[in-house]
Design brief:
The protein is α/β, with parallel strands linked by helices and 468 residues long. The chain has helices at 6-9, 33-43, 47-62, 100-109, 111-118, 137-141, 149-155, 157-163, 174-182, 415-422, 428-444, 449-463; strands spanning 25-26, 84-85, 121-126, 129-135, 145-148, 187-191, 201-206, 213-214, 217-222, 227-235, 243-245, 248-253, 258-265, 271-281, 286-293, 298-301, 304-307, 313-322, 327-336, 342-351, 356-365, 373-382, 388-397, 403-412. The strands form three sheets. Strands 5, 6, 8, 9, 11, 12, 14, 16, 17, 19, 21 and 23 form a twelve-stranded mixed β-sheet that branches. It has a ten-stranded mixed β-sheet with strand order 4-3-7-10-13-15-18-20-22-24. The two termini are 36 Å apart.
């Protein structure tokens, strides 16, 4: 399949290079029982997992494609490859164990350097498999588990089965069923009671194969009084045909625990990014989603928190950047199911050219959730006259004592602002980028320094040529 001329596209696509890696196994196209059996065979799975996959396949085949959001008519599910095994090595504990051509990819992306400097642990997925996982020894001695999800299934089976597919079951939606049938790769994380992981854990997902579906599944359990920050990053080459990323993230935050899940996704603009992310938050616990979406052709992603016991809290912060040819349909969901729970959603979107950004969110307060509080702030910035933004807020209140607020704003880059900054020596593009950085600053400041710098750099690249 032809690759787009990356040199002609310039610096913006530095992460979308293609690796000359020959996989050891590629499944036939389409999602069939035979493909599911091949995935399970190559992973050496127990019988119960194969049965789970086949049941999920039946659910996926019965559920219709969603029609309430972005246009998915260009996604040909029968033409995709659902499993690519890049190498015989899986979940290596040192970079030297990984084939050189794959290792070079992660060195080029700066992952080993980040591991040495600012991370408590790193996982690296290449196409369908986690090729590397490592956590610092002092955390291992405290009982922290950070391994490929396949290893978690086999090595910690009782703990794994207690939570796997309990937060997001296959019946939840069509693409959760698809992931449940074809899942491969992702992380299994367990933080024991009272353990505080000071530095972030990071997983990096790389797609190299064209017309491919990546279906990682991540399960994170933060036990009572524990703390962790998990960061996910993603890239893929720029091909002329569509690919699919359908992840499922399940998080359990037990009493008094604190967790944060950060995603910075910079997929190429031929990617359909259809993801289900959900956290169950228990008494006096806190969970934060920090969600950044700068790539893909279509994104449908709505991080959600279910506040199940008194005192549970959540905050969901999201950024979406949509250029011509992109529809970022993102948002959030909070269900307040117990007294004195609280949640906040802050959503920022930028639309450039003919790009379209949509906020789609739900705040639901269940009967009996006395004193529950929630607030939604939804702000959109339009760069061009052709740009588009939409807001689809849903608020359902079943408890009279709840307090719920919603506000939304839409603004444009002002010519007077551009002129003022030009009088201070900035070029038009630089001035526009500075305004956008100020717009997203409330969210960017929550990122670790290295990731905030990277986000601002990506924004600047997206803004090149946006005015004048």
């Amino acid at each position: 399949m032809s690759q787009v001329d990356l040199k002609a596209l310039g610096e913006e696509y530095k992460y979308h290079f293609v690796d000359e890696v020959k996989p050891v196994f590629v499944a036939e196209r389409g999602l069939t029982r035979r493909v599911i059996e091949a995935i399970s065979y190559h992973k050496g799975e127990p019988e119960w997992m194969l049965k789970f996959r086949l049941r999920a396949l039946e659910i996926f085949q019965k559920k219709p494609m969603p029609t309430w959001g972005p246009d998915l008519s260009g996604l040909d599910l029968d033409h995709l490859v659902y499993y690519v095994k890049p190498a015989e090595v899986r979940d290596a504990k040192s970079w030297e164990e990984i084939p050189e051509e794959i290792r070079r990819t992660y060195e080029r992306l700066g992952i080993p350097e980040a591991e040495r400097k600012v991370l408590a642990g790193v996982g690296a997925q290449y196409d369908s498999e986690m090729v590397y996982h490592r956590v610092r020894e002092e955390l291992e001695r405290q009982g922290v588990i950070f391994v490929a999800i396949e290893e978690g299934m086999k090595k910690y089976e009782d703990l794994f089965r207690e939570y796997f597919a309990k937060v997001v079951p296959p019946e939840d939606n069509k693409f959760a069923a698809l992931n449940s049938a074809a899942w491969s790769g992702g992380s299994f994380v367990y933080i024991p009671p009272g353990v505080k992981v000071e530095l972030p854990l990071q997983a990096y997902f790389r797609v190299n194969t064209p017309e491919f579906g990546q279906f990682e599944r991540t399960l994170i359990i933060v036990d009572e009084g524990a703390e962790v920050h998990y960061i996910e990053g993603c890239t893929a080459p720029m091909y002329s045909t569509e690919s699919l990323h359908t992840g499922v993230i399940e998080i359990v935050v037990k009493r008094g625990a604190r967790s944060r899940y950060t995603t910075i996704q910079n997929w190429s603009t031929n990617m359909y990014n259809l993801v289900t992310q959900r956290a169950l938050v228990y008494g006096d616990a806190y969970h934060e989603w920090l969600d950044g979406n700068l790539g893909s052709k279509v994104t449908m992603k709505y991080p959600s928190s279910y506040l199940l016991e008194p005192g549970a809290r959540t905050e969901i912060l999201s950024i979406a950047f949509a250029k011509t040819g992109q529809h970022q349909d993102t948002g959030a969901k909070i269900v307040l199911g117990a007294p004195h729970t609280s949640g906040t959603i802050v959503s920022k979107s930028i639309s450039k050219g003919e790009g379209r950004a949509s906020y789609r969110g739900l705040v639901k307060v269940l009967e009996g959730a006395k004193g529950a509080k929630a607030n939604v702030e939804c702000d959109a910035l339009l760069i061009d006259p052709e740009s588009r933004t939409d807001t689809y807020p849903y608020i359902e209140i079943e408890e009279d004592t709840a307090h719920v607020g919603h506000e939304a704003t839409v603004s444009k880059i002002n010519d007077e602002q551009i002129f003022y900054l030009q009088t201070r020596g900035l070029k038009e593009d630089e001035a526009a980028a500075l305004i956008v950085r100020g717009f997203i600053e409330p969210i960017a400041k929550e990122l670790p320094l290295e990731y905030a710098v990277e986000l601002n750099r990506l924004i600047e690249l997206e803004m090149e040529g946006s005015v004048g």
